[in-house]
Amino acid sequence: MKARKEVTKVLDCQEYKEIIAAHVDGYLSFEEGLEVQSHIERCPNCAQKFLWETRVSNAFRGKLTPILASRALRERVLEQLEEPPKQGIFAWSYLPQGLVVAFALLLMVGVSYVTWRAEAKDDLFADAIAQYRTLAQGMAEARQPTPALTASARVLDLSPWGYALLAKQTRQLKDREGQIFIYQGPNKEYLLAQEFDGADFPPTSDARALQASSRQFVVYGQADVNLIAWKEKNILCLIAGNLPQEKLLGLAQQIAARG
Amino acid sequence: MRETTEVFCGGRPLPFSLNRKKALKAEFEKAALPHLSHLYTAAYYLIKDKSEAEDLVQETYLRAFRFFHKFRPGTNCRAWLLSIFRNLFINRYREKQREPGLVDWEKIDRAYESMVTRHEGAGENNPESLFFSRLMDHEVEQALKELPEEFRTAIILVDIEELSYDDAAKVLDCPIGTIRSRLSRGRRMLQLALKEYALKRGIIKK
Fold first, then answer.
1. Burial annotation A197-227 (CB, 10 A radius, 16+ → b, else e)
2. Is A21 within 8 Å of B187 when comparing Cβ atoms?
C-alpha cells in the first residue's frame, strides 16, 4: 500500500526515474506498473531511460554471476558441521579469559557444581532440553494412546505424582551411561527425567544454584523449557519440562525428600 | 553424546527419530549448502579479499547451523543466510569502514542523463550503445567493488543473489523504498564507472 501511495501521488520525472529500475525488474505491483507505463508513454525522456535501463539490464545479465566457492571452502564448512553446534556461552572457547580465571577461583573455594570438564558437545543441560523438545514434539505428533511402561528409574520414578512413563532411552556420555524417561503428567504435559551415574553438574553461568531442603539444586532454563538438577547419592538427576521453575523445583524437592 | 538404544514405547519403536543432531545436520546441509557460492560471492564483493571472504562465509555457516532452529522452512534460506552474513560483516568491518563520502548526485544525474541521451539516441545497431556487453567480466567486477558499500550491497543482493526487493529489504533491515532507491542510484553509478572503463579501452569515444 505504501508503494502504491508513492505512485498515485503526482510524481515528477526524477521520482519516476527512481522506480523505473524496479519496473524493469518487474518488482512493481500491477497498478504501479500501469502508472509508470502510462507516464512513459507520455514522457519521451522517461521512455528513453526505460529503454536504456532495459537494454543495460540485458547486457549485464551474465556479467554479474555468482563466483563458485572453492572446494576447500566447502570442505571447511562441512568439517565444522561435524562438530555439534556449540551453545553460546556453554562452549569453553566462548568464555573470555577473565571468566576462566573467575571460574578457577570458584573451583578453589570449593564450589562443587562447576567441576564438570566436559566439552560443549557434552553439554548435559542443553542436551536434556533439546531431548525434551524432540520427544515432547514426537509424542504430540504420534496422536496415539501410548501404553505406560513399567518404571525402572532408580530415583526419578514420578508415578506417585500422577506421571505416566511413556518412553525411556539409554544415553551414553563418554564412559558414563544415563537413562532418559519421558513422562506425561496429570494435565497431559510432558516431562523429561534423566539420571546419570557419577556425573557432576555441568558448568554454565546461565544456571542458578539454590539451596532448598538442605540440598543443592541447579536451576536452568531455555525459552519456555525449564530444568532442575540435583545430586542424589552418586546420581545426577534432572527433570525438564514446559513448567514454571517453582513447580519443577517443588516436584524435585518432593522426589529428593523421598530419597 | 551418543545414543545407545532406540526409544520405544510399549515395546514398539516410537514414530520419530531421536537421532536429532544427525537429522538436523542433514537438513541444514540440504537447505543451506546450495547457497555457498552465493554467500561467497556476496562476501567477496563486499570484503574484496578472497581469504577474508572465505573466513566470514565459514563463520556465517557455523552461526547459521547453531541457530538453524530459528530458520522457518518455506522462507528464503539464501536471504536468511545473507542476513546472518550481513550482521557478521557489519560487526567485523564496522571499524574498518570509512564514513561514506558525500556523493554529488547532481553531477551523477547530469552525467547519467548525458550518457542515456547519447547512447540510447545512437540506436540499437550502433556498437557504442552496446558498450556494456563488450566490457570484460573483471572490469564489471572491479567497477562494482569500487561502489560505496550501501549501493554495492543493494546490487549484490538483487542483481547477483537474485533476491526479491522484499527479501533484500529484510536482509538489510530497511524499507523497500530504500532498496529501490539504492538500486536505482547504484546502477547509475555503476554504469558511469563502466563508461570510464569503456572510454579507457577505446570501446567508446569521448
1. eebbbbbbeebeeeeeeeeebbbbbbeebbb
2. yes
